[in-house]
């Protein structure tokens, strides 16, 4: 979501736009799944887990999916411009963004896949998770593919969102490489440091309203953002949440920034993938609250282990 200058500011404190709970120790195929929280936050979760296989869960609040999308972007993007863009769907509803890295691999943010009811779905009903490719409309067109496997980065830390990456394995290969194809892969850059005096292009799924529903079509949108000073970004969000594995992007003293994140959305520089959106402020129109990205070059070795080669 991108902030509109007419949006009412609820608070100027840096609030992180990730839906989360505080009780820890979920299990997803043997992997502990913890909910990200800043140190010192109170434990207010109402969650019960009866076994490591997550046979039942109860959650005291509900999630509004429509608050996870871009607003007031630089414009609608076509799939021909960005044929590597993917939409993650849970039960046919838009959930997060992602980038196609190979014939059967899509990269997204790990935190997109760790909410309690999602965890239950993915373990017991993984067919609830699908990926739409080949369309700039997240709700129709293109092709929808099933997900066979979810690979979290082995160093992923949910409490701080470090190494916030997940690689989805699709149930079959996508046809890539045709000249006029609407589905292509993108190469990732090996760069571990993104230069301060540069810009990235962020892609996400747009909403026609600052708050509330999308009103039907959910179209791919684009937003060019300058790289934000890393030390200032760390001062805003804290050293636990902004490390050397992150870069920040956003316009200073301006209303047009990513807000209520479109998790897993890609950041592009010179035609290569450099970042995946980790989190952003959930307060629209707040001053100096940039979006924080996980730098893809940091996990180059892990991607190579899955057969994905980048560009140096």
TrEMBL record:
This is Trypsin-7-like. Pfam families: Trypsin. Belongs to the peptidase S1 family. One of its GO terms (biological process) is proteolysis. GO terms for molecular function: serine-type endopeptidase activity; toxin activity. GO terms for cellular component: extracellular region. Residues 70-308 form the Peptidase S1 domain. Keywords: Disulfide bond, Fibrinolytic toxin, Hemostasis impairing toxin, Hydrolase, Protease, Serine protease, Toxin. Fibrinolytic activity; shows preferential cleavage of Arg-Gly bonds in all three fibrinogen chains. Contact with the caterpillars causes severe bleeding, due the anticoagulant effect of the protein. InterPro entries: Peptidase_S1 (IPR050430), Peptidase_S1_PA (IPR009003), Peptidase_S1_PA_chymotrypsin (IPR043504), Peptidase_S1A (IPR001314), Trypsin_dom (IPR001254), TRYPSIN_HIS (IPR018114). The keyword Disulfide bond applies. Its main location: secreted. It is found in: Secreted, Extracellular space. PROSITE patterns: TRYPSIN_DOM (PS50240), TRYPSIN_HIS (PS00134). PANTHER family: AT26814P-RELATED, POLYSERASE-RELATED.
């Amino acid at each position: 979501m991108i902030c509109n200058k007419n949006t009412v500011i609820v608070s100027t404190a840096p609030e992180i736009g990730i839906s989360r709970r505080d009780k820890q120790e979920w299990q997803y195929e043997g992997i502990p799944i913890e909910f990200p929280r800043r140190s010192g936050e109170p434990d207010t979760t109402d969650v019960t887990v009866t076994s490591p296989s997550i046979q039942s869960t109860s959650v005291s609040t509900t999630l509004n999916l429509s608050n996870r999308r871009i607003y007031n972007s630089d414009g609608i993007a076509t799939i021909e411009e960005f044929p590597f863009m993917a939409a993650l769907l849970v039960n046919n509803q838009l959930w997060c963004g992602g980038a196609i890295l190979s014939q059967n691999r899509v990269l997204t943010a790990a935190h997109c896949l760790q909410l309690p009811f999602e965890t239950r779905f993915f373990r017991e009903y993984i067919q609830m998770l699908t990926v739409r490719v080949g369309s700039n409309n997240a709700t129709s067109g293109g092709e929808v593919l099933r997900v066979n496997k979810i690979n979290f980065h082995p160093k992923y830390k949910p409490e701080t969102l470090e190494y916030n990456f997940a690689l989805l394995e699709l149930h079959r290969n996508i046809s890539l490489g045709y000249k006029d194809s609407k589905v292509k892969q993108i190469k990732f850059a090996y760069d571990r440091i993104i230069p301060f005096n540069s810009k990235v292009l962020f892609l996400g799924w747009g909403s026609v309203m600052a708050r509330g529903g999308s009103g039907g079509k959910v179209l791919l949108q684009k937003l060019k953002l300058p790289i934000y000073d890393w030390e200032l970004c760390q001062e805003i969000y804290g050293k636990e949440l902004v490390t050397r594995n992150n870069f920040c992007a956003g316009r200073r003293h301006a209303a047009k920034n990513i807000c209520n994140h479109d998790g897993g959305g890609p950041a592009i520089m010179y035609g290569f993938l450099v970042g995946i959106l980790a989190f952003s402020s959930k307060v629209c129109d707040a001053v100096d609250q940039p979006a924080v990205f996980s730098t893809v070059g940091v996990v180059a070795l892990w991607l190579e282990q899955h057969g994905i080669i980048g560009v140096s």
